[in-house]
Amino acid sequence: MFYFGATATTILLPVVFFLLPESVHWLTRKQPANALERINRALKRLGHSTVSAVPEVQESDRKKSVGDIFSPGLIGITLLVTAAYFLHIITFYFILKWTPKIVADMGFAASSAGRILTWANFGGALGGAVFGILTARIGLKPLTITILALTAVGVTIFGRTPADLDTIAKLAAFAGFFGNAGVSGLYSIVAYAFPTHVRATGTGFVIGVGRGGAVLAPILAGFLLETGSSLPTVGLVMGSGSLLAALVLIFLKMGTDGRVEAQDKQRELSSMARARA
Fold first, then answer.
1. What is the pLDDT of residue 255?
2. Are residues 27 and 164 located together in one domain of the fold?
3. Is residue 52 domain-shared with residue 136, that is, in the same domain?
């Protein structure tokens, strides 16, 4: 399994490096070699007309750095989205890491525990796909908040599941569906919240710190079970991570973030419009 994963990753590295294009906004800001050609190629693929010159980038934009995620204008965004991701990952990884153990402790065979985890992952894959469809119809922030709240509900109910494999499978799939959809929603919010020049840095920081929740989740659940907490209590506590994440997102002002991003894009698009003229 590990050899297969390593091989697939190695094969895809050159595919991503040579075939995945940079965004128009990144090329416009950084203006690397052959920037105009690469911008026009991307514009054609997106169905837009080409430009005749690379737009002029303001000196203030050139001086922006990746450290801006901690600047006064962005540190609030950085802290909020990082906290939301961290909290949700605690809940999500409780399902991924503890489901087999919980099923085995109920007296079922290890193979049955693996089958339940498969259903949780199947629900997660379906949840990510459905989330992508719903974002075209529902606002990103309210949709993500709703999904996170439903994840908390799903995990809480999962903690009260009876010792019946069919019921456990359905509840695991339900929790996995909303759990992974919540991860997709948070990824989308991260991409929306950070301006172009720090989007990759902001995403890396949020995911890097947030993954600490993946480490904490099995430790916290194990501690609760070891100290005598019942499974329903553990499910309630672990599910509260997603609920807290939803509450954190309420304070994220997407409108303000959108205006900041829109200003960056508007300057670039205006410059490109002048280049066309």
1. 53
2. no
3. no
